[in-house]
Design brief:
It contains 8 helices and 13 strands. The protein is an alpha/beta fold. The chain has 2 domains: about 1-170, 3-Layer(aba) Sandwich (Peroxisomal Thiolase, Chain A, domain 1); about 180-320, Peroxisomal Thiolase, Chain A, domain 1 (3-Layer(aba) Sandwich). The strands form 4 sheets. Strands 1-7-6-4-5 form a 5-stranded mixed β-sheet, sandwiched between helices. A 4-stranded mixed β-sheet has the order 8-13-12-11, with helices on both faces.
Length: about 325
Amino acid sequence: MIRSVVRGNGAALPRRIMKNADFEGMVETSDEWIVQRTGIRQRHVAADDETTASLGEAAARAALDSAGMTPAEIDLIILATSTPNNTFPATAVEIQNRLGMHHGFAFDMQAVCSGFVYAVATADLYIRGGLVRRVLVIGSETFSRILDWNDRSTCVLFGDGAGALVLEAQEGAGAITDRGVLAASLRSDGAHKDKLFVDGGPSTTGTVGHLRMEGREVFKHAVGMITDVIEATFGEAGITAQELDWFVPHQANKRIIDASARKLGIAEEKVVVTVDLHGNTSAASVPLALSVAVADGRIKKGDLVLLEAMGGGFTWGAVLLRW
């Protein structure tokens, strides 16, 4: 059978780093409070000349270099983002143009923090369906553009950045030992919209708006939803948590990551955590964490890796792949 195999990965981060202490003169908070509640110690914040498109392009080029490929070899670009450069056209087509691509097709995917997981699952379907051979999957965000910098409950949580994967169609045996995407499970429930949303939009206010969140409500639902979708993915693949080599979760809150891993029986040493370095970068979160774990040698060819994310909507999902 056809498998969607990872050929390369890359990442890009804005130049500016904001430490927790930088917020102490802006809102009523402290480094100790932020670390204790979230695990975040710093985040990157985009400058005026750094956008979702420019960061996405940089991550895409890094992934292509890692794969030993050129843009000419890519058939499709899927960009996961909630902070596009424009209402339209899709920022994916802007990245396509920046890469010098005038063939194939490109589109944005909006599932907030789950966007990259949704995009990988979607790319896998395009590849297995035979419509494309190689897909550039990007998660890129500039959440700093939609934050209310006077809201201490949200402004300290989010950061900017981008990450990318190159997926390629390769023959597999149809076994769990195959490289590539092995299983996926996606969910959403719009009944929870008001717990995490942006209070603006073209069709409602005609403005961009700011991010609003009921933190306790999100936390209350997160662990149960995450474990549910992961167990469904394990069931589809016919494996247990003990067989995993690495768990790469959405990097929103260290307490949610720890509680989810414990509930699933995933050993602490198998969990990739980068929330302390990046904060919550929404759709860029999972590919940024992947890039760190690949760069430092933890994730290696043949490893069984679980990706997971949950975001506004609510949306949530998981993808199991062999690196």
